[in-house]
Amino acid sequence: MSEHLNTRIVLAARPAGRPTPSDFRIEEQPVPSPADGEVLLKVLFLSLDPYMRGRMDAAKSYAAPVEIGAVIEGGTVAEVIESRHPDYKAGDIVLSHSGWQSYALAKGAHLRKLDPEAAPISTALGVLGMPGFTAYSGLLTIGQPKPGETVVVAAASGPVGSAVGQIARINGARAIGIAGGLDKCAYLRDELGFDEAIDHRDPDFPERLQAACPQGIDVYFENVGGAVWDAVFPLLNPFARIPVCGLIAQYNSKGPFPGPDRLPRLMRDILSKSLTIRGFIQRDFADQRPAFYSEMTEWVRTGKVKYREDIIDGLRNAPEGIIGLLEGRNFGKLLVRVSDQFA
Amino acid sequence: MSEHLNTRIVLAARPAGRPTPSDFRIEEQPVPSPADGEVLLKVLFLSLDPYMRGRMDAAKSYAAPVEIGAVIEGGTVAEVIESRHPDYKAGDIVLSHSGWQSYALAKGAHLRKLDPEAAPISTALGVLGMPGFTAYSGLLTIGQPKPGETVVVAAASGPVGSAVGQIARINGARAIGIAGGLDKCAYLRDELGFDEAIDHRDPDFPERLQAACPQGIDVYFENVGGAVWDAVFPLLNPFARIPVCGLIAQYNSKGPFPGPDRLPRLMRDILSKSLTIRGFIQRDFADQRPAFYSEMTEWVRTGKVKYREDIIDGLRNAPEGIIGLLEGRNFGKLLVRVSDQFA
To answer: What are the chain A neighbours of B274 within 8 Å (beta carbons)?
Structure first.
């Protein structure tokens, strides 16, 4: 592979608040050769996800931070270029965690082979991948929506939120989506079949949310935090469930946060309404993955669950992509097309 | 019953912050006569519990507030004086919810007959009653302590906390109790078998708590809130469970609460540690009551669960009792002896 170079994007500096282009650095290196048991991958799609912002901080979250100078982490769909693992051959398409680079080595045990006939390969990073499974496992295990209940989800046109709303409807619940902008709201109602969609940029957002939830809120799938939380909180019904899988609105702020202190009020409502708040990441529910792949593939195939992708061309544009994602500029699952398949 | 008067304590005013004696008023009325299906009860023991403070506010919590001029609510053990219900006869001892008064009418369906041979009748208001069931249901259903895990509970010499720690130990977990004062801490260690007991009045309380929990905290049974929460919070392990059944430290404050705002930090930890916070009241788990009565009665009989009562003589002293309870002055389950049995 000596005619190719591996383009990689490393963390140049830890962002102070929102990331800027200077926090990233593009490097080129020789493409490495696989050792025994390894494969050489050419990355086709890189997934950009809100959790990546957390990995750029020095503090340990549920995973270790990315070191300064290291390739930024990320889920990828890749093509096997050269294999020294018995289960893989050149041309296979796999799900890998190769990060922000155009070529990568991987151990065979860390890969999952994809069937390009079953679904477009990019969906392994979205509706049939980590975001879809986050929605599925968190909503069904923690949220437990019942027929007639009201489920609210923010960032609802994104890959997690859109799956949450559609799975809620499959379970007979009302789905209320919150998104930024009229085009996203129209998409939620007209394309995805949400019962209501509310623009959080609307100056009357809290009142509109309340009007959309005349029976209160039974499940709030929390993936944003911030001002949406303040509007949702007073509407929670007794025994409401709140799966927490993301807080994108506060990822760029470190605190301390100015008062008043909202914790005593939260605890009081947790107590007086018997609320359940539970954080999770999808790997907490790894034993549900087979059921997810089977059910979700069928829902996508039959059109019960629809999805939308927002594709950026070229790895060099990934930094702008993640910066935009943290500002809500994407519309659908954000992916970087790193290389063309079989090119 | 014309020779007797019913002494009743009514809510004279809604307390601003901590209750004062002038918020209560003692009245005397004729003892009423039971209608068909009712019994007349003479109250023997009145239970004083932290939840009563919430009922004195105008805001609806999980139950409606006590109206101004109305008898204050409360669980009671009473003797049937006159019965017009086929299931009860004079002399029967029953669990009722007769409130702060010396005589009361009750419908038979609202009573539970007690067996004075099985356990002292006062325990129906404590270890074998609502507080014991709060500990049992919240700890086992939400806390789910596993062998070797660390369970922390505050107000640990009280009726809920003492049961939480002892049931945690029955389940093979380490029990760390927090209480106010050296005598209470000694009682927890020496009488109840807690692994450690920490005085929250100690200036080094957070450091001592940390030293007592070298493996972190897996279950925090929240029944106080306030400063204890701040010491517990950083020690929570991934996947920790936090049943919330009380917040006595904040019952006397209305807010708004001064900053900094602790909510974003809480939400971040809920997410990064996959925490579960769930509020409950014991009636949420009503289907577990038969198992509770059976197991807890056996544990008390065999000495695996011990209890302590703090008994005030005379209904007129109930206001001072509840004021002291909210300041942590009681030592054990606080009861008012309203009348002597068979007197």
So the answer is: 62, 278-281, 284
Is the CB of residue B250 less than 8 Å away from at least one CB of chain A?
A: yes
Domains of chain A plus CATH, in order, are 5-126+308-337 (3.90.180.10), 130-301 (3.40.50.720)
**Distance between A90 CA and the closest CA of chain B, angstroms:** 38
A264: contact with B, CB 8 A cutoff: yes
Evaluate if residue A2 carries a pLDDT over 60. Answer: no
User: What is the pTM assigned to this prediction?
Assistant: 0.91
What are the distances in angstroms from CA A150 to CA A175, B110, B276?
6, 34, 21
Q: Which residue has the tokens 């609202």?
A: B110
Per residue in B287-327, pLDDT tens?
999 999 999 999 999 999 999 999 999 999 999 999 999 99
Q: How many CB atoms within 10 Å of residue B262?
A: 22
Residue A232 sits at the chain B interface (C-beta within 8 Å): no
Measured between alpha carbons, how far is residue B173 from residues A310, B151, B220, B264 in Å?
49, 7, 12, 31
Q: Give the residues across from A175 on adjacent strands.
A: A151
Determine the Cα–Cα distance for residues B165 and B52; give it in Å rounded to an integer.
24
Is A276 an 8 Å CB contact of chain B? Answer: yes
Go through chain A and tell me how many residues it has. 343
Q: What whole-number distance in Å separates Cα of residue B197 and Cα of residue B180?
A: 10
Q: What is the pLDDT of residues A265-303, one digit of tens each?
A: 999 999 999 999 999 999 999 999 999 999 999 999 999
Distance from CA of A67 to the nearest CA of B (A): 19
B321 Cβ contact partners less than 8 Å away, ≥ 6 residues apart: B48, B312, B330, B334, B336
Interchain pair B274, A284: CB under 8 A: yes
ipTM summary value: 0.90
Question: Are A266 and B266 in contact (CB < 8 Å)?
Answer: yes
